[in-house]
């Protein structure tokens, strides 16, 4: 959403005002004696940046006449979901039944599980229960899955909308756009209400690909809507991704967007030009636990905290303000390579780590440490942490 | 521990009796109507294999006169920790204060945090509390960390043992072996009891490297013990890793071993020859949620379930019994490439996925689905899931 130009990695490595502000802010917290801000590893959220991100995406959606249905897989936090709804979001998007349950239990009244569910195991009963508690929409991309949903939901299917997933070039799940109508017709004959179509332009997540993926997405959704028309159905919902592509998802055919990462942003979105440094709302607080030799420091942030998202060359995360990269991870160790001719990081130094991909990071923590505008902090539970099925 | 020869990847891809047994067993559970065994994604543990693994490692340790102090970072399960202690384990190893707390709360009386802790934030108070509840040992590898531990523990330091971490060739944390005595002397003068030395031969985790890393480990520990002698101290505890190197960690100098992964084993240990197929006790149950084109199936197991452990070439996991690899992951999608001239996997097919590295997998789930010898199943909480600090 930032609309900034593509950035080279070297730009990102440079210390900037934004990072410096964060570090000052954080250490002000330490001086104020806030024990939670001396904790690591911890997921630190800057409340004012979070609020700005939520407001900006809502303004974007409003100004283009789209509904905003944020994907909660990124934050898995009831508190943040409530901020999004209060700002004007139409409802939320979930990736699993478990995520939907957490938000339904918190009173969210309109939930779309944007995933091609196979409704077996405990999901049968859980979906029936969800349908009683919230306005529930479910993704579908095969006749077999529609059959299983019918078996699971029975009479409750009248309370549920199906939304047909189409594939728009990402090589992901979903029917070909031209086949959307036929599947919708099939599900309609099973007694389901089919509300429309959705897709995810996952191929917009590499540098330079955002506009292209968004264009593919618009064309695919347009074709899918036509295939609904061809079988005498109407696609009321025409739903698009994603944080990297949102700013280009302005086709008239699109009725809603489902970005997730924009609440926090991350290194990947920064590299893509999908956010500015000042829009990054989440860091992982880390402490140097080993500094035995010049040129190397080991942090207490490993694969269990930030995920193995990245590779040794581009790194698994970067120290904000300093630019040092984590080039190797163990479960509880993160290895930084430092220039030997620069000041080293002694044991005990706390640093903020910018992850490449924020979603798995949040899912690693039970709580978010939210730095409030007054410098205090609140602990917010990652309410739907895990909840993989 | 299996003592089998190094295996090529092709061997692993072949269907075998072991996997076939698992699949039959699992689907017997389904036929018996056990809803928990129709659930995905789920972490399925075979109780009889788990029990065999625990007993075999204990026999190995006993027969070589070593104490066994299993690392609980792998299972994070109080139930499994109790099985290990009941089988004869001396105590447990933890990687974080949070893990230690969970097991201390469950009554485990002897806990070693084998990590170079920096005792700041809430860790100050939490370590004091732990020292009151369990026999606590803590890793240390710098004077600064010893100073901070002194500040955190105060008078309680008398109830805590420090164990000096040495580096044995893995490029990990730890002092040079020759420096162990000097650090032990420093900590002793701060009023700590220093019980000995520990190391982790992390460079034994690549094929063919196990014996070599274990030899490095033995030499480094021997030198560290000598450096204790040189300053007039005794290293009572001489502690070694790890599942891949355990069977070679028989040097007389070693008093205890700290393997973790042996309870479950995984694809990495299988490739290393550190276990047999029949020793694998954990699989991730997955369901095909998309099968739009021949040669590809998408599972509901993505990076949030099995972690991004691996790479596109060797894969992020393999379907047991079939050999198909996950070559790409999204958060909730795992992509399988299938031979187009073989039977495809239709939507709704359940398959067991063997992960490369089991530790992050367990940490992804709130519960383990434990298949009991009678074919029933129990849900065991992953009690220390998360608990990263």
Brief summary:
Chain A is of the alpha/beta class. Chain A is built from twelve helices and 17 strands.
Write the layout of secondary structure elements.
2 copies of one chain form a homodimer.
Chain A: H1 9-13, H2 17-31, E1 42-46, H3 47-63, E2 67-68, H4 78-87, E3 92-94, H5 97-105, E4 110-116, H6 123-133, E5 135-140, H7 143-153, E6 160-165, H8 180-189, E7 193-198, H9 210-230, E8 237-240, E9 256-257, H10 267-272, E10 282-290, E11 296-299, H11 303-306, E12 317-319, E13 326-329, E14 334-337, E15 350-355, H12 358-364, E16 367-371, E17 377-381
Parallel strand pairs in A: 1-16, 2-9, 3-4, 4-5, 5-6, 6-7, 7-8, 8-9
Antiparallel strand pairs in A: 1-10, 10-11, 10-15, 11-14, 12-15, 13-14, 16-17
Helix pairs in contact in A: 5-6, 6-7, 8-9
Describe this structure in words.
The structure is a homodimer of 389-residue chains. Chain A is of the alpha/beta class and 389 residues long. Chain A has 2 domains: 9-46 and 268-381, Lyase, Ornithine Decarboxylase, Chain A, domain 1; 64-264, Alanine racemase (TIM Barrel), CATH 3.20.20.10. Helix content of chain A is 32%, strand content 21%. Chain A contains 12 helices and 17 strands. The first copy, chain A, has helices at 9-13, 17-31, 47-63, 78-87, 97-105, 123-133, 143-153, 180-189, 210-230, 267-272, 303-306, 358-364; strands at residues 42-46, 67-68, 92-94, 110-116, 135-140, 160-165, 193-198, 237-240, 256-257, 282-290, 296-299, 317-319, 326-329, 334-337, 350-355, 367-371, 377-381. In chain A, strands 1, 10, 11, 12, 13, 14, 15, 16 and 17 form a 9-stranded mixed beta sheet that branches. Chain A has an 8-stranded parallel beta sheet with strand order 2-9-8-7-6-5-4-3. In chain A, strand 4, helix 6 and strand 5 form a beta-alpha-beta unit. The radius of gyration of chain A is 22 Å and the shape is elongated. The model of chain A is unreliable at 1-18 (pLDDT under 50). At the A-B interface, helix 7, strand 10, helix 11 and helix 12 of A face helix 7, strand 10, helix 11 and helix 12 of B.
């Amino acid at each position: 959403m930032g609309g900034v130009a593509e950035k080279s990695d070297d730009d990102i490595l440079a210390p900037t005002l934004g990072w410096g502000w964060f570090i000052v802010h954080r250490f002000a917290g330490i001086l104020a004696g806030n024990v939670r801000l001396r904790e690591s590893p911890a997921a630190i959220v800057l409340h004012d940046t979070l609020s700005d991100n939520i407001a900006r995406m809502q303004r974007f959606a409003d100004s283009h006449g789209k509904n905003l249905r944020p994907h909660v897989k990124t934050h898995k936090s009831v508190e943040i979901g409530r901020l999004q709804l209060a700002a004007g979001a139409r409802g939320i998007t979930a990736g699993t039944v478990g995520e939907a349950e957490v938000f339904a239990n918190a009173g969210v009244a309109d939930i779309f599980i944007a995933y091609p569910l196979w409704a077996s195991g405990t999901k049968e009963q859980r979906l029936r229960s969800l349908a009683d508690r919230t306005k529930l929409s479910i993704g579908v991309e095969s006749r077999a899955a529609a059959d299983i949903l019918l078996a699971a939901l029975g009479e409750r299917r009248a309370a549920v909308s199906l939304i047909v997933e189409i594939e728009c070039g990402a090589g992901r799940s979903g029917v070909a756009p031209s086949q959307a109508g036929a599947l919708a017709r099939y599900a309609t004959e099973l007694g389901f209400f089919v509300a429309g179509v959705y897709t995810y332009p996952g191929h917009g997540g590499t540098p330079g690909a955002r506009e292209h993926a968004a264009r593919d997405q618009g064309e695919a959704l347009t074709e899918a809507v036509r295939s609904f028309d061809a079988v005498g159905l109407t696609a009321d919902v025409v739903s698009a991704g994603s944080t990297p592509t949102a700013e280009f998802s302005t086709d008239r055919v699109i009725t809603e967007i489902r970005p997730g990462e924009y609440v926090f942003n991350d290194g990947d979105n920064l590299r893509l030009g999908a956010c500015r440094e000042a829009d990054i709302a989440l860091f992982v607080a880390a402490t140097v636990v080993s500094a035995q030799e010049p040129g190397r420091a080991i942090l207490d942030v490993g694969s269990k905290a930030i995920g193995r998202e990245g590779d040794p060359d581009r790194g698994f995360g970067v120290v904000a303000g300093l630019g040092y990269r984590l080039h190797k991870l163990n479960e509880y160790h993160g290895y930084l390579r430092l220039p030997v001719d620069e000041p080293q990081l002694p044991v005990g130094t706390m640093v903020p780590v910018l992850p490449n991909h924020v979603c798995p990071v949040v899912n690693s923590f039970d709580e978010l440490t939210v730095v409030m505008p007054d410098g205090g902090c609140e602990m917010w539970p990652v309410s739907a942490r895990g909840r993989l099925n």
